[in-house]
Amino acid sequence: MVNKVLVRPAWVKPSIRALPMRTLRQARNVHSTAKETAKDNSIETTHFGSKTVAKSEKEKLVGSVFSNVASKYDIMNDVMSLGIHRLWKDHFINKLDAGKRPNAKEPLHFIDVAGGSGDIAFGLLDHAEHKFYDKESTMHVVDINPDMLKEGEKRAMNQGKYFNDPRVKFLVQNGETLDQIESNSKDVYTVSFGIRNFTNIQAGLNTAYRVLKPGGIFYCLEFSKVDNPLVDTVYQQWSKVLPVLGSVVANDYDSYQYLVESIQKFPEPERFQSMIEKAGFQSAGYEPLTFGVCAIHWGIKT
Ligand SMILES: C[S@@+](CC[C@H](N)C(=O)[O-])C[C@H]1O[C@@H](n2cnc3c(N)ncnc32)[C@H](O)[C@@H]1O
């Protein structure tokens, strides 16, 4: 195997370490295998939380969960993470450190998938502006659920920023296909607490690879696997209490039950990393946060 050091785009921090890279031929093979696997995966059933449901039904069920929680989305996140999601999201944005550098010619083109609330999209644009005086980079905020997307737009309107802004577009799209997003058009693909809800996660990763330009980065924040037995015991107990809290805070037991189960069903970090590699990404890696309660995953398109 020929090992090369990956050439990263200048704005990808050194902390997102360059790992030995496969040869281009291997990379192409990995990518086509990923596509084949995605095709072969067209089985009839999948999981919805702990239940087995028809694949065609899952999208609707997930849709109704997020339509139910859309207007109470902040409360939901605060309840589920004890407010820590705000720290995770800040770290996610700071670690990526993306933005058009003052001497760069071209702005960056971001896409935030499953971005409903706008938390990540607006945070990324704020970071680019405050740190690099970047007011040119563009953002597509996409989500499968129009209700979630409306919450993001409402938030933009209320904060008086990124609403009716030609740089920022809100678009209803399934992250598995991103039909309206051109191939090789984006520099940064982010997805935060969204990909575990996809019916076909591998298809979502393959699509992320498709829409990114060579040199672009896939960058994901998602619940993960707790790596400390003591913390895990507490976490398991907390997971049992969550649906009850959901019913008290938002009068919605079932949606919270689904969210807990969807976390339990999500692949362990090593397996998720191998799915990212299967899609064709190089230099894939991850950073566990808060004893592995969640993790940041990344990969670079070569
Ligand atoms: C927990 S919210 C995360 C929202 C936001 N990214 C954040 O970090 O606060 C999950 C989002 O994933 C969206 N979603 C679920 N399946 C999707 C899919 N296949 N394509 C695009 N978005 C999807 C939901 O509609 C919902 O808005």
Automatic annotation (TrEMBL):
Q: Where in the cell is it found?
A: Mitochondrion inner membrane
Job of this protein = Methyltransferase required for the conversion of 2-polyprenyl-6-methoxy-1,4-benzoquinol (DDMQH2) to 2-polyprenyl-3-methyl-6-methoxy-1,4-benzoquinol (DMQH2).
Is the keyword Cytoplasm in the record? no
Q: Which residues bind S-adenosyl-L-methionine?
A: S117, D143, N174, G175, S192
**Which chemical reaction does it catalyze?**
a 2-methoxy-6-(all-trans-polyprenyl)benzene-1,4-diol + S-adenosyl-L-methionine = a 5-methoxy-2-methyl-3-(all-trans-polyprenyl)benzene-1,4-diol + S-adenosyl-L-homocysteine + H(+)
Q: Which family does the entry's similarity section mention? A: Belongs to the class I-like SAM-binding methyltransferase superfamily. MenG/UbiE family.
Q: Does the keyword Endoplasmic reticulum apply?
A: no
Its pathway?
Answer: Cofactor biosynthesis; ubiquinone biosynthesis
Membrane-topology annotation of the record: Peripheral membrane protein
- This protein's gene is called COQ5
Q: What is its EC number?
A: 2.1.1.201
For this chain, one GO molecular function annotation is:
2-methoxy-6-polyprenyl-1,4-benzoquinol methyltransferase activity
**Upper lineage:** Eukaryota, Fungi, Dikarya, Ascomycota, Saccharomycotina
Q: Which Pfam families match?
A: Ubie_methyltran (PF01209)
Q: Name one GO cellular component term.
A: extrinsic component of mitochondrial inner membrane
Q: How does it assemble?
A: Component of a multi-subunit COQ enzyme complex, composed of at least COQ3, COQ4, COQ5, COQ6, COQ7 and COQ9.
Which of UniProt's keywords are assigned here?
Answer: Membrane, Methyltransferase, Mitochondrion, Mitochondrion inner membrane, S-adenosyl-L-methionine, Transferase, Ubiquinone biosynthesis
Native source species: Lachancea dasiensis
> Per its UniProt entry, which superkingdom is the organism in?
Eukaryota
Q: Which GO terms describe its biological process?
A: aerobic respiration; methylation
From the Swiss-Prot or TrEMBL record, give the protein name.
2-methoxy-6-polyprenyl-1,4-benzoquinol methylase, mitochondrial
Enzyme class, broadest EC rank: transferase
